[in-house]
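Entry 14. Ran structure prediction on the chain below.
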Amino acid sequence: MRDGRIGLLALQETHLDVGGDDTLNDRFRRLLIHNSPHPDSPTSKAGVAIVINKYTMNWEKSSCDDIIPGRAVLCTLPKKNGEMLHILAVYAPSGNSEENPGDDPDNPLQWLPHVDVLLGDLNIVESALDRIPAKTDDASAARALTAFRERFCLVDGWRLENPSTISYTFRTSKRGTANSRSRIDRIYVTAGLLDSTREWCISTPIIPTDHKMISMMLAPPDTRLLDYLKSRGSTLRKDLDALASTDRSEASNPQVLWAAFKADILAFASKLMKTKASRADRLTEILRRSTMHSTPYTMPAPTA
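Output, structure tokens:
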């Protein structure tokens, strides 16, 4: 989280007992960890957690609520404009699991007031591109996910950015049988937030796991240069107005003020680009390191 400047991380299958997150919070002071254990088998079943980077997020005003213990946590974070961002992290049961709520009207997820981001292990896919070999998911689970997405206008940002790309986040590892692959780990955002996202990526974590990590950057449009232009332009106008009532000199004239204005804008833009380039370099290094730990996937040959 430090190297990648990850602000918020959702974890599934944490298998932490009650109070396990308190121990981790004492050990990792840079992070705020909220774990929702499975109520019956916390150390062997399910578990979902939210991890917040204290150095990059407004963590002191955040809150996390267990919606379905061990399965769903709602995290609320303040945005810069004063509004709140609602992030739902889930670890969905498998389609044939007895815990799968499907169309159950008493499912607590049905009563959430608002969700801006949905992320986690959904355990089902919505497109034929996202599973090999092809398989039909549980119908009630698929209907429940579709209804939930439509209620909050949630869209699959990675798929929209990569409409024909085949990439998977999970693979089985069973001996003596053909292993399957699927993109069951996904991030959904509201249609209104989609334009504020970028850098959608599926990468291999450095920590050994059978899942890959899906990530994206969520940030409001970068208006720093525009804001500086407005502020510096306003100062220039005031200086020019004041200059109209004074005598012109070599050190004080419109040409000198204009040259200083252009130099300031260029310096600010250059500093801004260096900051962005530094982040791009860090992201490139993270992707390079994750690629070193990944195993290339070869499509199986067609059978007659």
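The chain has two domains: 8-221, 222-304. Will compare against last week's run tomorrow.
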